[in-house]
Amino acid sequence: MILLDESKYNILLEPLRQVDFNAYYIHSIITGHIGGKVHADSERAPKSFYAVTDYGMSLLFGDANNERFNGELYDYFIQKNEPREKDEWVQAFPRAWDALLEKLVGKGKAARYNRLNFSFDAGEYEKNNPRTPRDHTVVPTTPDMLAGIEGSVIPKVFWRGEHLFSKCTGYTVMIGEEAASTAFTSFLHDGKLELGIETAEKYRGRGLARAACMALIDHCIKNGLEPVWSCRLENTPSTNLAKALGFHETMRLPYYHIPV
């Protein structure tokens, strides 16, 4: 298993086209929008890949029947030879990879969750989200606000360097002078914009995330972009918000947490 040089990342495009679920975070590695590493079975003619973003979300894809690569990947996951830097959250395509990942679960080296993909229904969105007066203000998120948001799902995790300011669109609900909740662009590829959302802890449970997301979805509709939503099934607030905003579940996939 070798680390693929960034100059060869375009090799990933064809096998990525075979993946039948949302894997735009890997496209962000290829385009340089986000930092990451790509492990492969070969430098000259790679067929098996494990790509991981700097924040730990990863994808295992390509040829799932490469015994040598699978063995080296297993050793990597259990940290046989050297420690990993961070927890990793793994999706895989095709499903043949699950045998390797389930082995890790069986050994207590990983935990299985479920990741949901959604599709957007504009008619359902408009029907369920009337524009009514609110006691708060929604404003475009400024560069300083984008860089300053703290939490677990934040813009600077998904964008590196100047890409944060040139590619990331956001809308923020303000309570007085405070940024309470921000919906922002996690990924933007092929006319599809994936939403990220972060609400300050003291403002959670007040419906502010919905208002912020509505502003970003309206931006998508106005600019001919398709809003995209994915999350863990176990993240109940996110799944409920997605449904309220007109998203319908289309796919449920195994999602593996492999801690350091």
Summarize the structure.
This protein has 260 residues and is an alpha+beta fold. It has 10 helices and 13 strands.
What is the end-to-end distance? 19 Å
The CATH topology assignment of the largest domain is Aminopeptidase
Spans where pLDDT lies below 50 across 5 or more residues: none
Q: What class would the helix/strand composition place it in?
A: alpha+beta
Order of helices and strands, N to C? Answer: EHHEEEHEHEHEHHHEEEHEEHE
Cα Rg: 19 Å
Overall CATH class of the largest domain: Alpha Beta
CATH 4th-level superfamily of the largest domain: Gcn5-related N-acetyltransferase (GNAT)
Helicity range of the residues?
25-40%
Strand sequence of the main sheet, in spatial order?
A: 1-2-3-4-5-13-6-12
Strand content: 25-35%
Number of strands: 13
The averaged pLDDT comes out at 95
Q: How many structural domains in the coordinates?
A: 2
Based on Cα principal axes, name the global outline. elongated
CATH architecture of the largest domain: 3-Layer(aba) Sandwich
Number of helices: 10
Largest sheet: 8 strands, mixed
